[in-house]
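Can you make up a polypeptide sequence alongside its tokenized fold?
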Amino acid sequence: MKLLSVASEIYPLIKTGGLADVAGALPGALAGQGVQVRTLVPGYPAVIARLGKAKAVRRYDALFGAGASVLAATVDGLDLLVLDAPDFFAREGGPYGDHGGNDWNDNWRRFAALSRAGADIAADGVKGWRPDIVHVHDWQAAMTAAYMRFGPAAQVPKVVTIHNLAFQGRYSAGIFPDLGLPPEAWGVDGVEYYGGTGYLKAGLVSADAITTVSPTYAQEIRSAVHGMGLDGLINGRVDRLHGILNGVDTDIWNPATDGLIAKPYSARALGGRAANRRALERRFGLDHDGAPICIIVSRLTWQKGMDMMIDAAEHLVAMGGKLAVLGSGDHPLEGALLGAADRHRGRIGVQIGYDEPLSHLMQAGGDAILIPSRFEPCGLTQLYALRYGCVPVVARVGGLADTVIDANEAAVGAGAATGIVFMPSDPLALHGAINRLIDLHGDKLAWQAMQRAGMRADFSWRHSAAKYADLYRALMAEAA
């Protein structure tokens, strides 16, 4: 089976979040299910720099007004198709905005171009290769499904995955004439969304299947609270909705072989974590003592519950714990956390930005990871934490609820507990979870049992890839 994946980022070439990890890991996992994946991604500078020998397999004289070509290359085992459109993607800054965090004002055109190229490949193929099915990710690629539906690739099965419903790609109605879609695409059953243009909405109404990245999130987005204005559409297509949990790349995230940490270790030999703990203390200027080290590796935003962490950090220190934070996001939250670090030197350390090697060390050296998200489609950091014996302390939402077993009395007694789960969006519940963390950490045997239970859990892509492959085959049979 030949599958075209369309995504706006892919690890290890370009990454801002979990979408890149999924886009990078899923092709290898699907290969074991008999699915050959080629991934179409934008030609950002970081991507073009990694291509090496690449062949142009499609050319555009004017793709949304710009010259462009599709390049074929293999990088780190990934079979890539890269949309090389310098006018759109050859920019300093991030994939979606400038260094100041401002979105590019032509993102609607940039990702319409990516989607148009995806639909063209679905219809015509490239150099003798044509996909049997197309799988697109989030709003940046969702218009691929709309272009296919209203074009010659209408019969090719198409899957749209929602990684985070909060990001929808909403623009004014004024861009519609420039999208190159037929007039009938404008309407409630097309790209029109509350009087404007909705990229994710257009993909969802055009898809043959809609997937989310955890079973619980698939149910949550059917409610007005988590549906972000799309709950009516999703409930109307519930027969097409599937919740398939994300996995992790167990080769990249493996404490026994990880070259980015201070010392490898395993569930049988947890003693190796001590060297990583010391390295983490040095890196963040934390006191060298036996107090539990909590880590945060996150976007610093309201969605992630980071506003609640300002007061919770004070509570953690008062209870005797320490905190190491890696992330970036809303400037007021960055400033508040930096202020807390300044007030509590040796107990709180903060690094603004993202550092992939450091994130590995934090998982290997931290005792617990704090994830107080208000909503979390899947979450990958808690899966990395489980694999590394860093106990997750999580809100009971989305994929966090699906992957962490709370350390209640029965679960602890049975040796099944893997973390601490608390009611979401409640600062007092977060304080209570920190209290439980401190108490459990004081019981060395119970704590190590939780670490080992988490490390034994299987969150590889094996099961999820099989579910995707089954879905693809069902869609192809339906279309036949």
Q: What stands out?
A: The radius of gyration is 23 Å. The chain has a mean pLDDT of 97.
